[in-house]
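Need DNA-damage-inducible protein, part of SOS response's 3D structure for a figure. Predict it.
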Amino acid sequence: MTSVIPVTSQNKDFEALKHTDDHGVEFWTARELMGVLGYMYWQNFEDVVKKAQITCMKSGQNVQNHFSDVTKMVIIGSSTARRVKDWKIDRYACYLIAQNGDPKKPQIARAQTYFAIQTRKQEVFEQLAEDSKRIFIRHEVTQHNKKLFQTAKSAGVTQFGKFNDAGYRGLYGIPLSEIERKKGIKKGELLDRAGATELAANLFRITQTDDKLQKDNVHGNPQASQVHNMIGKKVRQTIKDIGGTLPERLPPEKHIKELEKEQRKIAKPIEIE
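Structure prediction for DNA-damage-inducible protein, part of SOS response:
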């Protein structure tokens, strides 16, 4: 059963207090959030923020990634301004603050629900974006692989197994059968179990080999396989040069068909009873 998050005045306050920096990243400030959470005195609220930071640290997170120390000018007395301490906090930090707040305060109870749901929604959308990227690249690999094999056929290639393996040997440093054994995956599953980074490396290998075969008018099994292997090696060397993880060391991901099925479920609205 699903029902949308109720739009309360407090929820509107949370969104009204939200800021966006020059990079499009959303944030709140602790002093602005204090009143909405039912706190009148900074000293009391500061204790809650510090407890939230401890929780953040214990969870293995870098506290500074979620709580940034800042200062702001406030007016006190008769138009006298002074600089006071504050924190620039993200949505996850807001969630932790709510979790460490006084549970007797109704504002805290509502905030716990609100930020828990919103934080989860953000996590889901981020995962959805990452999964969408992987699915997109996998489809690109499929299309360009078809084109490569058509080009190879036109170049006189008849031993497609050897031609294909030559490219994998270049990129991975080992034959396809050894890649599958090393990753613990079934035969023929490599590209369906590859993550976005690994797929991108293979896509570059495929498109560059296709281009090279056509430009150099390559013909015959040995020559085409040699080109495919050479391109694979160059992509591998580029990964080394930039300090990336070599493809054979990347862990296998969930099968692309399972991912597509899950993505359709994840895309459903996140709601609360």
